[in-house]
Every structure is written in C-alpha cells, then in structure tokens.
Amino acid sequence: MDTHHNHAVVPATATLSVDPVCGMKVPVETAKWSVEHSGKTWYFCGQSCLKKFEANPEKYDGTQQHTQQSTPVAEPTPGIEYTCPMHPEIIRDKPGSCPICGMALEPLTATDDDTANPELISMSRRLWIGTVLTLPLLAIMFSDLLPSHPLHNFINGRSLGWLEFALATPVVLWAGWPFFERGWSSIVHRSLNMFTLIAIGTGSAYLYSVVAVVVPGIFPASFRDEQGDLGLYFEAAAVITLLVLLGQVLELQARSRTSSAIKALLSLAPKTARRIAANGTEADVALSEIQVGDRIRIRPGEKVPTDGSVIEGRSSVDESMVTGESVPIEKSAGHPVIGGTINGTGTLVMQAERVGADTLLAQIIKMVGEAQRTRAPIQRVADKVASWFVPAVLLASLITFIVWSIFGPAPSYAHALINAVAVLIIACPCALGLATPMAIMVGTGRGAHEGILIRNAEALEVFEKVDTLVLDKTGTLTEGKPRLTAVIAAQGFDQTNILQSAASLENSSEHPLASALIAAAKEKGMELTPASDFQSSTGKGIRGLVQGRRIGVGNAALMQEIGATCDGLHDEAESLRKDGHTVVFIASDGHCAGLIAVADPIKASSFEAIQQLKSEGIRVVMVTGDNHTTAAAVAGKLGVDFESDVSPSQKGDVIKKLRAQGKVVAMAGDGVNDAPALAQANVGIAMGTGTDVAIAAGGITLVKGDLRGIVRARRLSQRTMKNIRQNLFFAFVYNAAGVPIAAGVLYPAFGLLLSPMIAAAAMSFSSVSVIANSLRLRTARL
Prior knowledge:
Blueprint: E1 3-4, E2 16-18, E3 25-27, E4 33-37, E5 40-44, H1 47-55, H2 57-60, H3 64-67, E6 82-83, E7 91-92, E8 106-107, H4 118-145, H5 157-175, H6 177-188, H7 194-214, H8 234-258, H9 260-266, E9 272-276, E10 282-286, E11 295-298, E12 307-313, E13 315-318, H10 320-323, E14 329-331, E15 336-337, E16 342-343, E17 348-354, H11 360-372, H12 379-407, H13 412-426, H14 429-449, E18 452-454, H15 457-463, E19 468-472, H16 473-477, E20 483-489, H17 495-506, H18 512-523, E21 531-537, E22 541-546, E23 549-554, H19 556-562, H20 570-578, E24 582-588, E25 591-599, H21 604-615, E26 619-623, H22 628-638, E27 641-643, H23 651-660, E28 665-669, H24 675-680, E29 683-687, E30 700-702, H25 708-743, H26 747-750, H27 756-775
Parallel strand pairs: 19-26, 19-28, 26-27, 28-29, 29-30
Antiparallel strand pairs: 1-4, 2-3, 4-5, 6-7, 6-8, 9-10, 9-11, 11-17, 12-15, 12-17, 13-14, 13-16, 18-30, 20-25, 21-22, 22-23, 23-24, 24-25
Subcellular location: Cell membrane
Protein name: Cu+-exporting ATPase
Main location: membrane
C-alpha cells in the first residue's frame, strides 16, 4: 500500500470521501492521509485511522459502498452537516467536536430553524449541575482558610476529604467528561489542543487528590505541610471544570451570533406566495411549489417571493435588505424584482423567472456561507504558532514542576504540582485559532447586509492594501444606458436614412451602443429591416447589407478599411468627443454617409465615490475603448487618470503593467465582459444591479452597481483586518504573559502565585473576549 500526504488549500466546493475507519467525511482534494489498496484510493481524517486501516484493511474495506461519495459541499444534501469554524476541512453528519482542535462543530449551512444548539444544551446542563455540587466544595475551602476551621468541629479531616471526593467526582468526571474525551481524541489524532491541556491539568489535580484521600501514606514529606497534612485540590479541579464549562457556554452563545447575518438573509424569503392560475383564480401556495413562468400577485406590504419581472401594476419596492439601496425603487411592467424585497403601497403581478437555489438571495446565502469558511492568508501566522504551542506549554509545565520541586518552598512538590497545573490551564491556543475565523465570519455577514458579497477571505484581506483602482467606464462609472445625442449627415445623405440603416444593422449586434441606436430609431417610428452578410470587427465596428446597400458602422479605422473618407466631418466629431460623446461613423456603399454621437451619462454617485477613494490615497484609473479625446473628456469631469483605445482583451494588459510597477490593483467591471481583467487584478470587483449581478465573477461582488459600494467594501476590509490584528495581538500577549505568570515568575519578587482557578477563569474568558471583539464588526460604521 502507498501512503500519500496532501497539503493543498481546501476549495469552496470539494469532493468528499468517507474515512472507512471512523466514518468522518474528508475532502479528497485536501486529505493529508490516503492509501492505495485493491486498486482504490482510501482517504483518512488522521494518521491513527490510516494506521488502523493499514494494520487490517480487510476489516474496513467492506464499507466500500460508503466510501467514495462525490458530494459537492455547496449542494444541498439530506440532513444537516457540521463543520469546524477553525478547520473547515472537517465535515461530519452529526454534532460533535473537531478532532483537530476539539471545538464544537456547527452546522455547515445556517438555517432559519430556531432549535437550540444541542451542544449548548448539554454544556449548560453540565454547568448548572456542576455548580450545585461545587458550591459545598468552595464552602469547605473557605472554612479551611478561617483560623478556627469551624467545619473540623463537626467532621474530622479524613472524613472531610472523602466528602470532597464525593462532591468533586461527578463534577470532574461527568460535567467535565467532554474535555477528557476531546483531550484523548487530540492525542489519538496527534493534534494536541486546548483540551489536551485542560484534561491533563484537571486530571492531575483530581487524581492526586483521590490518591491523597485513599492512600495518603504513600506521599513523602515534600508533599506535606508543617502539620504533616496533605493538601487536597478537589475544589481546584471542580472549579476549573466549571469555569471551562462557563467559557464554552459563553463561546457557543457568541458563536451563534456570528451566523446571524445568514439567518437574517434566510428570514427574508416568505414562506408562501399567492399564485395566479391560468383561469385567473388565486391561491396561497408554499414557496417551494412556485415554478418558473408562474404568475404571482404581490399585495401591499408583502415580500416579493422570488426573482422575476413585473407584468402588471405599479409600486415602489424596498430593496435595501439585498442591495443596500436605502431609497425604494419604483417598479412597473417590465422591471425586475428580487425575491426577499418588500413591496410598498401598490399591488404588483410578477412572473417568476428564477426559483429555489437559482434566486439572487439563495446565491448570496451560498456565497456568504462559503466565504465564512475560507481562510485569510494572515491565518498562517496563528497556524504556525498553534502547531508548536501546545507541546511548548507541556514542556513549560514540566519545567515548572521540576524547578519548583528543586527550588520551591515547602511543601515543594505540592507547590510544583499546583503551579504546573496552572501553566497547563492558563494557556489558550483556542484564542489564537479563533482570532481570524470569527472576524471573517462576522465581516462577510456584515458585508452581505450592505450588498457587498465577499467571495473569499483572501479578497477581504488584500483589498485593504489596494492602492490603485481600475474602473471600466461603461456601466461602472456611467449608467450603462447610452442614448443617442446627435445625427450628422454628410453632404448628399439624409439623417433619417442614416439612423434607420445604422439601427437596422446594429439590430444584429450585442455592442452596448447598439441599444441606443435601436431605441432612438423606434422612438422616431422607424421600421428596422433585417441585415444580411453581417460581420463584426473587434475594436472597429460592424458591416453588412441593409436593403441592398453595404452599410458600415464603426470608428475611423473601419472607415479607412472600407475606403470611406470622413475628413469633412472631422471638426464636428472632435467637438462632440471633447464633450464626452462617443462618435461612430456611417458608411454606405463605400462612401462616408455621416456620423452618430452617443453619450452614456455618468452616475451621480460616481463623483462622490471617486472623491472619497482619492481622499484615502487610492489612484483611480478609467479604462475604455473610446478614443483619447472622448476618454479625456469623461476622465476630466471625474478627475481620474485614464487609458483609452483599450479593447476588452487589452484590459488585462493594463492590469499587468500596473502590477509590474509594484501597485496593488483592484479592478471593477461588470463581471462578464471584464472577467479576464478581473482575474488579472489582485482583487476583482464585479459590479451588478439586482438580478443581473454576476455573482461568480471577482473576489468581491457589489449587488448594487454603485461605486460607493467600493468605498464601503474597502472600509469593511480595513475594519475586519484591524479586528483580526486586535484579536491576534490580544491572543499572543495573553499567552505570552499568562504562561510565565502561572509558572510563578512573580513569586521571587512579589511572593505572588496564580491559583489554577484564576488561570481557568482567564483561559475561559480569553476566547470569549476574541469572539466579543469580532462581534463589534456587526455595528461598525462603513
């Protein structure tokens, strides 16, 4: 059998295989452990499972029918799957704990089900029952601290020890059992974690105390005080267990709030829709029964059930919950509507065009969920530290025990034990592990509420460093709805014939300017005739036969190719270009027939957004296929740099040139025509409007095609990365300071020792503090 190790990055959609030993689902692309057996590759969650398989493969290869399940993670599967927020490659079909870090698994896909987390219920029950049993232990401890030792008047010291044993045992071994399970699992999987330390720490204190009660005579004098008594640490073991349980409960409650963004999105979709049958009757049906083509009535104040277009009625629709647009949008026949948005005071009849997983809302939920499980590059710092952190703490604990045993005050072994336990308990690799994932989860969820869809954590991290923003002109800086502004006929030609011929030819074109010519011709009541022998020349224009005449529509290069001379229209063309108009020439049977000017209005929001971006030190560069004069006019109005005469295939070259200069470049475009350029940029930003958004393009997608979204996205990136750095700083400082203090570094100078109970409290709240800091992103100002 051949064993392989794979350390690839986990993709958003992976092929899953089931570990034949433990049954865990393992992403094939990222499985660290695999083996060839009987002509088949088997994948494993850890080395221990691999070794069990290699020792006796026949015992496990009978599960062959369950092993190679090619299930896309992103596709819905029966039941709920669970994953670890710190290790997204771990996937199971039931609740439990992560075999790598021990953290409680959470649903892979959030649901709007309000059912309580079974892990939270279990931990809470253990906490409350453990508290009831621990309070008497604390009473005994405080009694021993009093000079008169009042309890000893009623019960002797030996009996008191047995009472403590009876009270502490269910707390440590029942309430704290999940920690021992996870600690053992970490050893089995050779992935030591926080629960390894907790299990060893509480187990040591408890086991020592049990032996001290059952067979006290075996301990030497170095364990005894001046009166010859042995110290018992039942209350320390119990209180540590309770404080860790409290930390787990608080952490689970806080983590549930990190998925509130997805739950809020899920709640947007209504449960039912009012479907209009072919005979005109109406009935409320479950949303799952709606199919493409169904007619649906939306009454005032109701939610739009799915994506589609209005066919009757007029109303305003609040789309803020999806696009971030605060002003309601007027809707009438022909206008698109988005599922989950809220109808205003009018009644609309719509036709369903996208249902189920194809709707914009479903795609947003899917995208946010996938983004929350990606890892930012900065996570590598925490991963490196975590890889040696627990072994280092175990070594520090051992050194602490040895040093205190040799140099500590009497009883030296008792001091050594309690300080070694404190070192084990105070260390918290979990805070390091949570620092990045929690901030990413909250940040991407917050972005979704603002109409900013983050595709992966890397885009969120890199966007903070962007110093150059490249913008496509049409549809990004401008409205993307060009309109005809002028028709100038050459001598011997008629304006009406020019426009009619050009519009007829453009009817076969998909160029953005074609819609402007066609719309203008139809407004004037012109009848468009079919064109034949249609040819398109990229970067030049189009030509074909219209009513027996060979028509050409394009730039000067096309006219030169045709042999049509348009020098007589040069002054008019240049004047229009200086005003920002795009000029195209018309040729008829080899002669210059005239020119047509088209303008695409600049979005009102573009001016404000560009000023904000420039004020933050970002250089803005506009790229366009327009010639230099037109591009200069538009760029001058906006106050940006520009690159003109750039074909779609050349936009990527502009990005490459900027990156070669050491710039960190973001490119914003429509996400379809600009896809190659988006891929070349450090961060690709797909601009979209409503259901036309190209969610699959770019690292970041703005649902609303508004440049102000780029400003908000950058602020989100800055605040998220600042939050991550705060989390990492706190986690590093906490552990760097906590471990030496627990080891007793302050004792020689100040006589201070850290109780393991205080260490447990500090450890528990360190993780909660990291999560609480991440949750601040939910209300951060963007």
